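Is this the right way to post structure tokens for a design question? Let me know if I should format differently. Anyway, here goes:
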């Protein structure tokens, strides 16, 4: 099978006790996740998952972060 979509999400720590964080401020190194996706030739969709808060500003920040990573890796 193939992975068609990746949800980018970060949290303060692994389950079971965590809170959602912005993508650049959690325990997962999402730069390395993006690097791994590029290395394996991922050609799908990367979308934000849950972000702290519930507003458009928080969502826009997360979209911008994902877009910056894509551009940083030549996308």
């Amino acid at each position: 099978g193939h992975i068609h979509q990746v949800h980018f999400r970060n949290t303060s720590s692994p389950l079971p006790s965590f809170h959602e964080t912005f993508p650049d401020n959690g325990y997962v190194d999402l730069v390395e996740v993006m690097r791994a996706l590029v290395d394996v030739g991922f050609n799908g969709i990367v979308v934000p998952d849950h972000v702290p808060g519930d507003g458009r500003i928080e969502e826009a920040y997360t979209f911008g972060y994902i877009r910056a990573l894509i551009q940083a890796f030549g996308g």
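Format looks fine. Someone answered above. Worth noting: The chain has two helices and four strands. The mean pLDDT is 93.
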